[in-house]
Amino acid sequence: MVLPRFAMTAELHYRLSIAPELELFRPEIEYVCDFLDDCYLLRRAAEAPRVLHYGAAAPRDAFAVPARLFPAYVRVDRHGMHPRRQELAAFAKENRPPRNNRDWNGAIGYDAVGLIFLLLSRLEERDHPARDRYERFSIEAAVFPPEQGRLFPFADRAAEDIARALTGETRPRRRTSYDVLFTHDVDTLRGYHRPFEPLRHALGDIVKRANPKAAITRLQKAYRAGEPWSSFRRLMDLSERHGLTSHFYFMGPSDDPMDSPYAVTMQPLLRAVVCEVRERGHVAGFHPGFRTATDAHEWSRQREGLEAVVGAPVREGRQHVLRYDAAVTPRIWSDAGMALDCTLAYPEATGFRSGTCRAHRAYDLVARCGLPLRQLSTAVVEFGLFGGKYRDLPLETALADTGWAVDICHEFGGTFALLFHTGQTEHGLWSWLVPAIERAAG
Fold first, then answer.
1. 143 lies in the same domain as 108
2. Could you tell me how many helices (H) and strands (E) the chain has, helices first?
3. Are strands 179-186 and 415-419 parallel, antiparallel or unpaired?
4. Same-domain status, 259 and 371
5. Residue 4 within any structural domain of the chain
């Protein structure tokens, strides 16, 4: 589990002031202040001489942030908060913070508070009709689309702008510091889901595709690659060489064809693998199945089944296939007592889906409150860089994109999260991974 590291330095206290017409949105505004206080040496207090005001008619000597997201671009009903979807593009266009603060003049001319809430809560995703083939929110519908394949953390920039204004410091002191989270989704334990599956596909290579060489390669990879030990140990060795911890996210028992059944069919092997992972000081987490993102009962059943097999609790992880519902999934994880969710990522882009490179509290868009669960954007996913399903970048470009994300995390004191699945044997993937980890850990 990765949480912010806190520095032992005096805090600057400030008082929050809200325009009367925005009181309806106090839960969202205070959620943003909580994020601000988690990131910087600031603390909201009932009585403080320094004032952060949100909205019109600011008190004298207060630092004011204009309010534009609320109420114009949202609506509230008995089911919580919803976006006014058609208008959000206009909000994003008018409230885009600068990428750097070299020309800082002490004032904020955009809705930094609303922007932070919009991005962290994933409000824009709620009930959005734009879905891809896996029923995921489409990156093409994002109000801040990637630029040259990269998603900049605009919420971090907005938080820094507010912190600079409140403290008067060009580089406001942070609570968070740079860290690396090296994660591995375990989609298969051996080189296959079911024992006879590679034979069936190899037969197709021969009969349908007239490619016996591909059939041989497939069978060797499935039955003779030494999985799971080969890739697990190789990944743990790589982590240990650089002083890192590998976080392996395992599936629970499932019969869905999109999931692997190893928690049912390979229980002794699963227990042995998890035992070695923990004995070497690494982490075993949870990889909830394809249908669990909106099904709390199935999510809990799979988690309980995994814990029963491995004999230990799991408190962090990532949804399978990155399936995520902004109004449902965070509450499922939080109600289950999970500590960290790394689902938020786009395979089509490198960067920060939630607008921040820091671990942050999740938000319940239905109950309109912050949750104990922390979420972290996974900046880089290996299957999104290579292979052509999403992108197929040259090695130099993939390394440059990865280095850019590392630099961003250094700039804001964030956590660089990288996903590399177990079972990967392709030389090209490791030619990228090894220098990428060296750069991140250096």
1. yes
2. 13, 17
3. parallel
4. yes
5. no
Lowest mean pLDDT among 123-137, 193-207, 298-312, 328-342: 193-207
Alpha helices in 63-171 (DSSP H): 85-94, 112-121, 154-167
Using an 8 Å Cβ cutoff, are 151 and 351 in contact?
yes
- 427 lies in some domain: yes
- DSSP annotation of 387 reads S
Q: Are residues 184 and 204 in the same domain?
A: no
Please indicate, yes or no, whether residues 100 and 233 belong to a single structural domain of this protein. no
Q: What is the pLDDT of residues 375-428, one digit of tens each?
A: 999 999 999 999 999 999 999 999 999 999 999 999 999 999 999 999 998 999
Burial of 133 (0-12, 13-18, 19+ CB in 10 A): exposed
User: Does one domain contain both 245 and 288?
Assistant: yes
Percent of the chain with pLDDT over 70: 89
| pLDDT band at residue 10 using 50, 70 and 90 as cut-offs | confident
Q: How far apart are CA 302 and CA 254, in angstroms?
A: 7
DSSP, res 400: H
Query: Count of CB atoms within 10 A of residue 214's CB?
Result: 15
Residues 101 and 236 placed together within one structural domain of the fold: no
Average pLDDT over residues 2-14: 64
**Partners of 51 in the β-ladder:** 15
Q: Are residues 312 and 431 in the same domain?
A: yes
- Cα dihedral across residues 381, 384, 385, 389: positive or negative: positive
Q: How many domains does the chain have?
A: 3
Q: Which residue has the tokens 């590679």?
A: 198
pLDDT digits (tens, 9 = 90+) for 181-221: 999 999 999 966 666 565 565 566 666 676 766 655 555 56
Q: For residue 7, is it within any domain?
A: no
Within a domain: residue 213?
Answer: yes
Nearest Cα residue to 274 out of 189, 333, 353, 381: 189
Q: What does each C-alpha distance from 59 to 23, 163, 416 come to in angstroms?
A: 16, 19, 39
Considering the domain architecture, whether residues 243 and 293 belong to the same structural domain is answered as: yes
**What is the domain range of residue 153?**
12-167
- Phi (first) and psi of residue 362, to 5 degrees: -75, 165
The DSSP secondary structure of 346-380, one letter per residue, reads -TTSEE-TTS-SS-EEEEETTTTEEEEEEE----E
We report the CATH number of the domain holding residue 189 as 3.20.20.370
